[in-house]
Q: What sequence folds into this?
């Protein structure tokens, strides 16, 4: 059981450990756009709850001693910096040593040593090992719910292909490697191929279920690229929405009946069948639904263009999932901050 009193004191101590010199120096500085984004994130996240959640990864025995982990709050904030600015572990270490705005956000005083990239890597591996990413995502989403930002009018489902940084494997080569696991080091065995618009893609698929109007991501998952969009649909539905929208890949007669039975409006685009073309009514309906469905493209566009999430660089599903989920979390925080400012 975590002692919340001690936990909060530890969080407060780290948040205010910057020296007086740091504070005085900051008074003459112009606040940059980068620092403004970090400030927006800082205002929304309830860091004490986040630290309580991820403190399970600290296995240091306080009675026996041993080398303790870096402060959990510091490492959590460093993680947000990394995915907000698309930095590799070595790049992140360099930037933390160089940029005062990053140090201030993470609570790193001038007299403190910045965690090296191997420490950062181990921290992320621990998060993955304990399957904490989805729980962190839900925790942040709860903070946004409490602010009344999620309207629950409907959910839009969609998927995007995330190209692997690694070269495609032929089935023959994959079989050979599976028989000799010792030779798979440095090779992405989880990425798969899929065909879209007549072109083959090798990598992964990011799946999301977004809230209509707010465009906040409520559900997210990452799979190999060969997984059909419709297979993830059940995990993208929150259960409290009034309607559901998506492209033709998600359509099924059974799904239509099931959603209608639950009183949920079925806005998945109609799909023609062999020998049964779409009626004029269905075509008009698809046009109406498409204008709503297109909102789901905003989160993906933001992640790829603004957060520079262009490809999957890691060599397995778990590590690529960490990056995808953190991009979803960062997107939600910045989108939430924008909505809060608009409401004010």
A:
């Amino acid at each position: 059981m975590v002692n919340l009193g001690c936990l909060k004191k530890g969080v407060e101590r780290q948040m205010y450990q910057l020296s007086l010199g740091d504070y005085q120096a900051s008074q003459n500085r112009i606040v940059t756009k980068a620092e403004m984004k970090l400030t927006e994130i800082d205002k929304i996240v309830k860091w004490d709850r986040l630290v309580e959640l991820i403190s399970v990864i600290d296995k240091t025995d306080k009675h026996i001693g041993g080398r303790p982990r870096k402060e959990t709050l510091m490492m959590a904030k460093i993680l947000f910096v990394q995915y907000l600015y698309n930095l590799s572990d070595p790049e992140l270490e360099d930037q933390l040593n160089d940029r005062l705005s990053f140090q201030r956000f993470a609570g790193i005083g001038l007299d403190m040593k910045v965690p090296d990239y191997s420490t950062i890597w181990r921290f992320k591996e621990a998060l993955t090992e304990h399957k904490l990413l989805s729980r962190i995502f839900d925790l942040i989403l709860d903070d946004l719910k409490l602010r009344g930002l999620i309207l629950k009018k409907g959910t839009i489902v969609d998927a995007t292909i995330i190209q692997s940084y690694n070269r495609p494997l032929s089935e023959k080569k994959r079989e050979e490697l599976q028989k000799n696991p010792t030779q798979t080091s440095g090779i992405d065995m989880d990425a798969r191929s899929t065909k879209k618009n007549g072109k083959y893609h090798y990598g992964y698929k990011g799946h999301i279920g977004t809230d209509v109007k707010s465009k906040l991501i409520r559900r997210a998952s990452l799979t190999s690229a060969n997984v059909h969009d419709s297979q993830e649909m059940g995990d993208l539905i929150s259960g409290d929405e009034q309607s559901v929208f998506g492209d033709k890949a998600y359509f099924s007669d059974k799904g239509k009946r099931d959603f209608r039975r639950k009183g949920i409006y079925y806005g998945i685009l109609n799909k023609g069948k062999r020998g049964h073309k779409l009626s004029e009514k269905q075509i008009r309906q698809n046009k109406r639904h498409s204008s709503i469905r297109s909102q789901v493209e905003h989160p993906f566009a933001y992640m790829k263009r603004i957060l520079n999430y262009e490809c999957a660089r890691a060599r397995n599903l778990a590590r690529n999932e960490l990056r995808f989920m953190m991009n979803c979390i960062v997107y939600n925080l910045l989108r939430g901050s924008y909505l809060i400012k608009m409401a004010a």
Observations:
- Residues 150-343 form a domain with the Nucleotidyltransferase; domain 5 fold (CATH 3.30.420).
- The chain has 15 helices and seven strands.
